[in-house]
Amino acid sequence: MGEYCGAAPEEDPAMALVTPLPTTTTTTTTAAAAAIKQPHYYGCFDRCSTKQVFDNLHGNISLDPLAREFVDTEEFQRLRDLKQLGLTYLVYPGAVHTRFEHSLGVYWLAGEAMNNLRLYQGEELGIDRVDMQTVKLAGLLHDIGHGPFSHLFEHEFLPRVVPGSTWTHENMSALLLDSIVDKHQIDIEADHLKIVMVIHVFIQLLWHLSIAIRLTHLPLSLRRMALRTSYLMF
Questions:
Q1: Would you name the residues annotated as active-site residues?
Q2: pTM for this entry
Q3: CB–CB of 55/101 below 8 Å?
Q4: Distance of alpha carbon 47 from alpha carbon 88, whole angstroms
Q5: Are 145 and 169 in contact (CB under 8 A)?
Q6: Would you tell me how many other CB atoms lie within 10 Å of the CB of residue 137?
Q7: Helix, strand, coil content of the chain in percent (nearest 5)
Q8: C-alpha to C-alpha distances, 206 to 174, 182, 215, 221, 233, nearest whole angstrom
Q9: 192 pLDDT tier (thresholds 50, 70, 90)
């Protein structure tokens, strides 16, 4: 992942999460400085601390510091070894993309969706930088709990070896997030992390609705908008 040292935040939409440093000609007291201090993930940070990865579908994807902290863990890096479509590559040789690529793509799509919502309805909905970061993180981490061979492990293997198992990759994702934050001492507020987990649970509830309800009442999800499968397979 290369360092980002490009345009200023106001010139680059990818840097929308950067809050400019306050400018003042007076001396800032310790108390005042503490009052304006915010966690680094939605406050000020050096442009060069933002990394970019190149995706063959979406182009350059900018990872802000908090996203990078999660991506750089071994728990997230293991997604490089999990094929998105399990054993499908044995029939479609081009279907070798991984959960790692997919997760980065959903992170990017979530950012695009939130940028547009904020542009057109931001004031009406009260969307702020923390909201944007939360949705992007939920997209990035939504598949981190997947087992080997993805859905094949969850829906075919486990029911045969552990009859009655209620294990789901969404629940595993929530458990892993807690573990990752503690193990790697990631600087994220508890309320922020809780909302990311709630989004994961909500995704699981939507998935278990009947197909008729999903098709007639739910908008296209960011996961469904990911075109990587059709792009690489055909």
A1: 169
A2: 0.70
A3: yes
A4: 40
A5: yes
A6: 24
A7: 60, 5, 35
A8: 16, 29, 11, 10, 27
A9: confident
